[in-house]
């Protein structure tokens, strides 16, 4: 279903995702309507598929961005703090900012930190976001910041986060990311299953990557759930320059 959602305009793409019930929440729909994918995926912006953005990275497919927002939505309120790890093109960072930044004059501004380990992609995300007036304002006000660093360590400086999104497949559920969650808070992370790359996975048993949703409850207890199978580029060491 999700792969049939492509459109010829941004609005058509988002409406198709909504009709297919990939996007269910009106706030997610509004936030995605507010960001033109053409600023982030210039070659085929309204196709519901991942697109290369250089440096071995891809902008994820619109249906994956939708799923990420849907799973995190209860923790994306005006004033929330969010960490977007593997921010790549900057598209999802912008959508997340639309969800958490309060209206002008509010006492709780909300903030999204986008982190990527490839400096050229951090620069790309900044310039992509500068293509729109609201994107420029979000960066000028400090409500969106793009940082170069190893996302496997999170970003302690602005922790704790109400929501953490990881846009590349991790080898484990990095405990430091759970530490940096607020209580309550939620982590959305693709993780390589233990059997990936083994003979078991080649036989179709238990291999591949799965999205995990990790909740830190208000009392500090942690609940982990494996929700669906995916295919992301890996979360790796930075390439040597
Ligand atoms: N959410 C992004 C996904 C980009 S692809 C988008 O839709 O545009 C995954 C990104 O993870 C790449 O940009 C890659 O550079 C980044 N990445 C991989 N390993 C990383 C690490 N250890 N720390 C930070 N970023 C990493």
TrEMBL record:
The keyword Ribosomal protein does not apply. GO terms for biological process: methylation. It is found in: Cytoplasm. One of its GO terms (molecular function) is protein-L-isoaspartate (D-aspartate) O-methyltransferase activity. Its main location: cytoplasm. It comes from the Eukaryota. Signal peptide: none annotated. Its EC number is 2.1.1.77. It catalyses: [protein]-L-isoaspartate + S-adenosyl-L-methionine = [protein]-L-isoaspartate alpha-methyl ester + S-adenosyl-L-homocysteine. Gene3D superfamilies: Vaccinia Virus protein VP39 (3.40.50.150). Keywords: Cytoplasm, Methyltransferase, S-adenosyl-L-methionine, Transferase. It holds the Pfam family PCMT. This is Protein-L-isoaspartate O-methyltransferase.
